[in-house]
Amino acid sequence: MTTNAYIKNYPRPQFVRKEWLDLNGVWDFAFDDGKVGESEQWYHHFPKGAKILVPFTYETKASGIGVETFHPVVWYCRSVKVPQEAIAKRTILHFQGVDYKAKCWVNGFMAGEHEGGYAAFSFDITPYITYDSENSIVLKVEDSQSCTQPRGKQRWVDQNFECFYVQSTGIWKSVWIEYVNEVRINEVKITPDIDRHMIRFDFQLMGIKGKDNLRLETRITLKGQHVKKVSLSADRPWITVEVHVFHEAGGPWKQCLWSPESPNLFDVEFILYEDEKECDRVYSYFGMRKISIENGQVLLNNGPLYQRLILDQGYWPETHLTPPSEEALIEDIDKIAAMGYNGVRKHMKLEDPRFLYWCDVKGMLVWSEMAATFEFNDQAVSRFTKEWLEIVPQQYNHPSIITWVPFNESWGISTIGHDVRQQQFTQTIYHLTKTIDPYRPVITNDGWEHTVSDILTLHDYVETGEEFLERYQDKESIVNNSISFNNWKYAFAEGYAYRGQPIIISEFGGIAFQTDMGWGYGNQVNSVEAFIERFRAVTGAIKATSYLSGYCYTQVTDVQQEVNGLLTEDRKPKVPLEVIREINLA
């Protein structure tokens, strides 16, 4: 099952145009440890020799280089032929993810720059290209081992340690070109409202100045059947349209809501006309779903939602943070579902949009989590805030995303328990996120000392069900900071108190088999039977604690030295998937 406009490997499946060019593949590549590339004008005369397979970073085997040593500056170059028929259009160069600071030249002309390793960005390269001939695209990327840049699980020293892995430098997501008209739809923000049976589209249009005969048409279908067509004058750059998807107050419309059990998706086309001439056509989709909190419960479509999540770091042995293929993303989602989980906490990584697409299609819930900095100062605050405010709008339209997680375990805010500045920072990010998206819960410090937060989440790697039940038998002692919930952390920072939020155990388990090759949480087990017994006991204890609204098990797969996955790094089950499923669904 896919949406109507699905194109395999299309990098941005929430906003599809048919005219595009995939630039993934072999590029020229060079290290620049001496930082001489700009002074020597490599954008005019690129040093020949090395090759790299984009979008895999040089640290990965799949890139064709496989060198894990940190290099602060790398360069890329390739030529692109732009067809003559594109001469009347704008040529947009897209980067889905480049870590960390990118500077781009086209035919020797500076086309733009961007800072931030996880947000997508693009440059209009029309002024710099020639048609029906080769065009040189050169990209310089600067990375660092600074802890003031959002880095997530990427190490900042020369060797892996604890739960931090090989860094990712350079292009690590898709690169592509699309050809668009001057007059076009630049973005659409899609907001469902199931209580009013409506969908809201917030459009941003480009190139409309001086035009007085533009018309914007929206066509909605469901499973190939016509639902609604709306047409209106496009006389300003920002336009909001609300469309009644269903008029009846009850009945069949409820069968068309989006949920893990029934991930219904509406297809939608946005067409911009000048007189009767088509200027732009964009394909998208949406899910009619609502996530809310009432009376200490998380609700999906106004009904209680018990979340059975699993931590997903999104690493592969040959490609690290970059998915090896679209099929690999689908395989992960299918295996997660086969184990009885209804969602993932995508940990310390902003995943490929194709992953979110397949979560939308297959009904997999997602917590979207920002990559952490590991220092707190003005530069870290600025970098974090800027990139997070790019990411939230880019991911907003995905119905699978039901929670935002900007901070985890006090990373980058290590003294939040008593430091008023760090507390105010988390409050600021909370309210900024709510300004962009007031419809999803926000967790400000997942697992540890919370400030303002819509859900209270706790991390606890207790090994036995008996110990868990004893520790969590008295809810009030946990939420009122009378006891530390995991023997060393408290639920709330100083000055903050429990306000009746839902409570979720958002990290637990992490069980590893006996090995000298890596680590897990607690004692390692020496048999499948021992693993299942411990997994069943702790999971069962959480489910038996009535005031909890769900859990998140650590984790889907092994990741480098962290060997506590239910699957190996190459996605082989360590225990039968059906046994995990039976325990989760019991």
Automatic annotation (TrEMBL):
Residues 22-145 form the Glycosyl hydrolases family 2 sugar binding domain. Transmembrane segments: none annotated. One of its GO terms (molecular function) is hydrolase activity. It comes from Paenibacillus polymyxa. SUPFAM superfamilies: (Trans)glycosidases, beta-Galactosidase/glucuronidase domain, Galactose-binding domain-like. Residues 294-582 form the Glycoside hydrolase family 2 catalytic domain. Residues 183-289 form the Glycoside hydrolase family 2 immunoglobulin-like beta-sandwich domain. The keyword Hydrolase applies. Pfam families: Glyco_hydro_2, Glyco_hydro_2_C, Glyco_hydro_2_N. This is Glycoside hydrolase family 2.
